[in-house]
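Sorry to interrupt, but I need a hand with the structure work. Leave the record below and I will have a look:
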Amino acid sequence: MSSSVYRLHSTLEIPLETVHEYFDEDPLLPNGVADVDITRRNNTLILRAVADDDSISKYTPTAQLKASVTETRIYEEDGERTRTPQTGPQWQDEDEEIESELVEYAAFKGERETVLQNTALQYEMFLVLKDLATHAEKGTLTAITEEDDELVATRIVDGEERPATIEVVEGPASEKAAENGVDWRDNKFIS
């Protein structure tokens, strides 16, 4: 049984507090992952898989999820929360002070290599990201994976799993391209 991640695109934004709570509650981790190390370096959050198998060398880099940490001011108006990016000072009348708080978000944004790095336990860490995506306040996770020799499409939008399909639009070497291209093997100008 082999599983792989072929395509992945993410624009997920998850409150940093939610990410820490998720791992504090001891989530059910995929087979092969004993734990997840959480490291923060400046504005980068790294979630690294810790293998439960001793055959994986301590020098083999295991898969990791990488997110940038951003701050967003959340305003509460009439009992409803609204988000605005932190853009600088906002001038208001002193009488109209609106309740707000500064919230840090883990932004898992980019293609596969940007968000999900290293190959050892890569599919298992994708499953962790997929579960985390259901806690996202904003953003989309789309992926094409292989599970038990079948391609599987995943699509999660704003924390909610949505139907997804895989459509092959054009093969890697279509016959039409071969007709219009240069045949380098049988070219009279090359000896």
User: Anything to note?
Assistant: Helices lie at 16-24, 112-115, 122-133, 175-180. The first strand starts at residue 3 and ends at 15.
